[in-house]
Amino acid sequence: MAENRNGFTLIEILIVCVVLGILAATAIPRYSGAKEKAHAAAMKADLHNVAVLEEQYASDPINHGQYFSGTATADTPLNGFTPSPGVTVTLTAFNTPGTQFADWAAVVKHSESSESCEMKTGVVTCTTTNAMTTGVLNP
């Protein structure tokens, strides 16, 4: 007599669930890491763009070599600069009135990342909020 089989057995369903669980366990951490890297790339790109804008602003003869300060978001641009969505750029200018001695610094934070980046004198440094400071401990 021929056996008519409809559907899957319990063991077949369990094997499929285990295989899917293994695939998910390896894919989810990789996706999370890629997302953090994308946020960091957006912050670094915004730092580069705002650096170009700051130098353009200071090189304009009307501004006498001085930089501008302020906070820029996607909703509230600053001097024509609009950062990436979710990114907040805070600029601090160090101007000496009446002279051309000036400098600036920028701090960038993404709303979906624990990492923040800053630029001072052309050097970009990125740190996480839970990063430990390196140093020497004396007993």
For the structure shown, list the relevant keywords.
139 residues, alpha+beta, 5-stranded antiparallel β-sheet, 1 helix, 5 strands, disordered C terminus
Describe the structure.
The protein has 139 residues and is α+β, with helices and mostly antiparallel strands. It has one domain (15-128). Helices cover 36% and strands 24% of the residues. It has one helix and five strands. It has one helix at residues 10-59; strands at residues 70-72, 87-95, 102-110, 115-120, 123-128. It has a five-stranded antiparallel beta sheet with strand order 1-2-3-4-5, with helices on one face. Strand 2 and strand 3 form a beta hairpin. The protein starts with 9 loop residues before the first helix and ends in an 11-residue tail after the last strand. Mean pLDDT is 85; it is low at 132-139.
